[in-house]
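Q: A small favour: would you put together sequence and structure tokens for a protein?
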Amino acid sequence: MEEKKSFFNKIKEKLSVKKLLAVVLVLAVIGFGVSRFLPRPGGTRPTFQTNGTRTTTLTRQVLNDSVTVTGTVESTQTVNVTSTVTGYTVKEIMVQAGDYVQEGDVIATLDTTDLLENITKVKEKLVSNQETAQLNYNQAETDMNNAYDACIAQETVLNSATQVRDTAYRNFEIAKTAVALQQSEYDAAAAAAQSANNTNNQYIAVMNDKKVAMDTAASAMATAQAALAAAQADYDTAMAENSEDTESLKAMLDSAQAEYAGAETAYNTAKNEYQSAADTVTATQADYDNAKAAVDAALNALNDAKVQANYNSLENEYNTAEKNQTVSQNNSGQSAENIYKCKNKF
């Protein structure tokens, strides 16, 4: 706006100065002519002399003489009027030389055809860019909403699977508590049966050792008995024949009798030890049988408790829910922490 005012002020200044100089010049010429014919103050009227004597009496009258002056009147100041816009020619000049102009008057117009075409193209491109930007924004917003919906869907699936798993776990824990007492009794009975079985096996091993010792003693006693019978027969024969070997045979008979008596004592001892071991085995076997029966009873009670608590079914449900929860988490590719981060992006 300031540049426009300056432009018009310069035009106005240039035109006004030219006209002012023209008026001043005309008045100066007229004044010069008048001064030649008017008397000076306190003096006489001027006279014009030639080679001859010629006088003229001046009287007050209208001066009709004029002076014709030709030439070019130029102002002492010139102003170049230019536009701040370059590259455009003047299309039309709206004033003529000597015209007066005021601030705000249009002096000239430029040919802005190319400018208007460029402005139109820029506007069209701007509209196109705005439409493209709006489409991109709409698509980005849609993608963001879809991503958020997917995040929420993943969270919903994972939360549902987790809730099912937690419910199954609680039910399974209740069932485990219900059968825990029976399980404890069964475990104690099984441990007692195992201990009784171990004891029984130990005494069976002792009994078997005693059986071997008894059989060995019985064999030794049988051998001693055979030797005693042979010595007795030899001695009896010698006594009947009044043999000289009677004394030596008597000594052999006494030795055979002593060996037999020792073998018989050893056999009886081994037999008693075997019998004692066998009796112990019988007792430990009975203890084991009783413990085994207690285990069977405890197992039956445990199974009954599991049936009543629906233990196996709840265990299967929990295992299935745990597996499904893991699968849901793997399929979504999101842990609870990652889903939280996903939601916070929005």
